[in-house]
Amino acid sequence: MSLRRIKVQASRYFTRRGSCILFVILIWFLFYHLPAPPSTQNNTRADRPPPEHRVEDTARFIYRSPFRNDPNVQYEQQLSNALEEIEKAVLTQSEESNISKDRIWQIAKSQKDRGEDSIVFKGKNKDWIYTLVTDKKAVEFLTNELSAIPEIATIYKSYPQNILRADLLRYLLLWYYGGFYADIDVFPARSIKACPALEPFFALTPDGYTKSTHPDISLVVGIEVDEPYASPKFMRDWHWTRSYGLIQYTMYAPRRFSPLLRETIVRVLAHTRQYNGEHTSFFPSLAYDEKTILGVTGPDVFTDAILDTLSSSLPSTHPFIQKSVDADADIGDLISAETGELEKRVTWAPFHRLRDPVCIQAGEAVPNESMGGLCVLPISVWGNGQRHSEAGGFNHPDACVNHRFGRTWKKGWWEYIFG
Ligand SMILES: *[C@@H]1O[C@H](CO)[C@@H](O)[C@H](O)[C@H]1NC(C)=O
Ligand SMILES: *[C@@H]1O[C@H](CO)[C@@H](O)[C@H](O)[C@H]1NC(C)=O
Ligand SMILES: *[C@@H]1O[C@H](CO)[C@@H](O)[C@H](O)[C@H]1NC(C)=O
């Protein structure tokens, strides 16, 4: 081969390689450095026809996360005990009750990321103490209040994406302080205390003032997805890993130190540790894909932690367990493949097509297991404006918040350009 030919080939090789690298850099830039797309007015996207609603004959009321195949039980137990130590220390030291103050928490990287919705949210709930937790405040909280478990701050700081940090932080804030959490793109359709579904917590006095009542409930959650009959295709169209799930963009913790949130925190940390141990990535920001985020910090881990904690703390005669077992009769998901034994536990069945709020009091748990009490709200209260799960529109009479589904994420630009 002549020298000249080698030179030509070499330069061809380098230009091809060069343009490949440029292309990768460009894509990376587009994904991670583009500002958020322009917001749509009132979720006009919701007027487009939804994907075809394909369903199967059989429902699935239970999914098992791959992260629960082989959990590090010892590590989880240690973390859980360490969190309980913090709870005891705080409550005995201050001799306070575990009733939360009326506090609203929102999370944003910095003050300038706050939009109109967040300002209206604060304005509509003037009798609540409002805190915007910026990155800086978050690190202060983790290193001061949670100094007993330095690993929390370490893991928090190690996350390559904001969404992962914001997920973990919301559970920690509501566990430690209690109060109301909402994403900054949540619009208050009503004030918190005027929300009909939250009436057990805020009774109206004869003089017209709302007064806090204190049922023994540590956490109130809403429903985001309720399609247990969804076909695999239908789920792919919506990018779901499972056909049911609870909301974690809005949560209310009327009492501090909810065991349900404690278990969520334990799992987030354990799943992160497991995932990092199994994956190393050349581009850290690409290390967590959408599905992983759901299972490590997002709605999947949150929903599982709650269903599993109910299962381990409610007596086997509890109506939720009865309902779950009955719904499984023709499905068999609760029958162990190895032993043929029926697992008596809580599945999604008691929450399917919920019409009214349902609450389990803390005292319904078996004596040695606490779950702190839970209320689950029907989908239209916090999950309205979605084109599935029979969610009502933004103006549904149950609606207390409207979530505009952010569009600040990668998907936002895709939808903005391609509809
Ligand atoms: C958008 O929603 C707000 C509050 O719900 C309402 O006041 C406004 O009229 C709506 N705008 C449009 C264009 O529908
Ligand atoms: C809060 O305190 C009450 C009364 O002492 C107790 O019944 C309840 O289980 C506690 N809740 C939590 C979440 O610790
Ligand atoms: C419940 O706890 C008490 C005291 O902590 C203990 O004596 C008892 O054996 C426990 N019962 C069960 C069923 O674990």
From TrEMBL:
Pfam family, one: Gly_transf_sug
InterPro entries reported for this sequence: GlycoTrfase_DXD_sugar-bd_CS (IPR007577), Nucleotide-diphossugar_trans (IPR029044), Och1-like (IPR039367)
GO terms under cellular component: mannan polymerase complex
Organism superkingdom: Eukaryota
Keywords, sorted A to Z: Transferase
Gene Ontology biological process terms in this record: protein N-linked glycosylation
SUPFAM superfamilies: Nucleotide-diphospho-sugar transferases (SSF53448)
Gene3D superfamilies found in the cross-reference section: 3.90.550.20
Molecular function as annotated in GO: alpha-1,6-mannosyltransferase activity
UniProt similarity note: Belongs to the glycosyltransferase 32 family.
Name used for this protein in its record: Glycosyltransferase, DXD sugar-binding motif
